[in-house]
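Technical note accompanying the year-one report. For the benefit of new consortium partners, we illustrate the data format agreed upon in the data management plan: each record pairs a sequence with a structure-token string. No post-processing was applied to the example shown here.
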Amino acid sequence: MAGYTALYDACVLYPAPLRDLLLQLAITDLFRAKWSAAIHDEWIRSLLKVRTDLKPEQLQRTRDLMDANVRDALIVDYAALIPAIQLPDPNDCHVVAAAIRGRCDVIVTYNLKHFPAQEMKKYDLEVQHPDEFLGHLSNLRPEIVCGAVKKCRLRLKSPTQSVDDYLMTMAKQRLPDLVGFLNHHRELI
């Protein structure tokens, strides 16, 4: 398993298409993926607010599968670190505390402004938009990323998605660089 460790913030686990791809990549051993129970609670709570058709039990099952299938992903025992962390939004301090305890290298989040670079330097943490994170992985191991995308796309049954459909789905996730990369490798996905 690679030594590079990424903490997934709740906002990247919230949308199912991105969550599916990030989890598929997490089991490739290209890097280690981490999260906490509080991060799970946050993405599930947010999703249930807008998706009234979903039941908490369904998302609990997803959570359980994530924890069971991504090796050593769940970070615990970080609460004591939270009071020392200073961020623009105090509600994000638990994310940094979990990243520190989990010995993460990067926090993958859409909320870059919530994690100022100067503050993150104190903890030797980098913060990346998911498009940047996926771009680095695509440059490092394009065949692994394309294989993961293909598995995710082919899993979609109701409805199925063509390559163009899948690229449109990823574009809606605000991942323009990934979409460009995938469009150039469409025969592999």
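Partners are asked to follow this layout when depositing records. DSSP finds ten helices and five strands in the chain.
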